[in-house]
Amino acid sequence: MKRKINISDIPDAPRTFFEVDYIFPGIRTVDAFPKENFETGFHEQAFYEINIITDGEGYHALGTQLLEAKRGDVFVVPPYQKHAFIGGEGFDCYHFMVSPHYLQKNLPIFTQLPSFFTLFEIGPIMSLHNGHYLRLNLSDRQLNEIISILDRMHLFEGSDIARSIHNECIATMAITLLCEAFSETNAPTSQDGFFAESINVIMQRYNEKLTIEELSAIAGLSRTAYIEKFKKITGMSPRQFILRQRINAAKRLLTTTEKTVAKIADEVGFFDTSHFVKTFTAICKMTPLQYREAQSK
After folding, report:
1. Greatest distance between any 2 Cα atoms in the chain
2. pTM of the predicted model, to two decimals?
3. Environment class of 266 (CB within 10 Å of its CB; exposed 0-12, middle 13-18, buried 19+)
4. Which of 30, 60, 75, 278 gives a 20 to 30 Å CA spacing to 177?
5. Distance between CA 105 and CA 108 in Å, rounded?
6. Is it the case that residue 274 has pLDDT exceeding 80?
């Protein structure tokens, strides 16, 4: 039986931050393993954490939200989001972790999946500010299929590079199935679904000149109502959110390509390089070139 708990009673984990290298030593970029009697205090990590509840009932604490968790629930936690799980005895979870490098490398593939951005970015944002807006609960069939796929990660024997390639293929299969399951259960047929679709448009077209009128029409809301709801759900204005996506895209290009700052500025939607550099520096507390150098160390 699930015990009652207040979010203020949840302590910090013994280790409150996990770096990418701590979880993914060497050339590893993905990992997955089951955890019985799952419970962990508040912590953050520099990678994506996908927690699939396989048995029992408990809670997922995300920011100031305390969300109920039960068998079949899937919680995607992006990097640097403070969270915790409370369940204890009988609360079991499959812990699936992927590095940002793996997702960035495969982004051209994953963006073809209709629900990828919603599951990995939009859903967590909405949950962070408003609890369960868009949740994924797997059927027994879907849950068993995902578990059987993830179990294969530790059955392969071979060299480090061969195992890394094998496990990335397994991770891609698992993420594809999760996105397909999310599409089946979260079609945009409600106001929240249409609102999420408007954010999905931003995630895919952040480098274009999007207007509030276009986005509010997708969400089925007036301009004023859309801005108010956007701020309530994401904690920022639509313009601030678009800017954040542009800066995040710039970070990816700075770390994965050798393109010039001017070229990156143009690709992510800035029409003036000096404006891009000024904006990037204000948000990241360093220039684009300093960021590139810091990430290469």
Report:
1. 58
2. 0.76
3. middle
4. 60
5. 8
6. yes
